[in-house]
Amino acid sequence: MLKCKKTCQIVLLISGITMMSYGAVRGEAAVVLGKAIKICLECVGIG
Q1: What phi, psi does 27 have (nearest 5°)?
Q2: Pseudo-torsion of CA 14, 19, 25, 28, nearest 10°?
Q3: InterPro entries per the record (predicted)?
Q4: What pTM was computed for the model?
């Protein structure tokens, strides 16, 4: 049971890192940052 849990954690960690890396390569970080800035400015009432 402990080995299965450890294996699952490693697989999920590797898949998460892979997905984040793929998104960074595609330029998705800039898109997310742009949307976050727009939301923050709308909350403050500037945008």
Answers
A1: 90, 20
A2: -150
A3: CD1871A-like
A4: 0.62
Of 40, 11, 14, 36, the C-alpha closest to 28 is 36
Amino acid at 30: A
Contact 47, 41 (CB under 8 A): yes
pLDDT digit string (tens) for the chain, length 47 residues: 789 999 999 999 999 999 999 999 999 999 999 999 999 888 888 86
The pair of structure tokens assigned to 45 is: 């009432």
Residue 38 and residue 47 in contact, taking contact as beta carbons nearer than 8 Å? yes
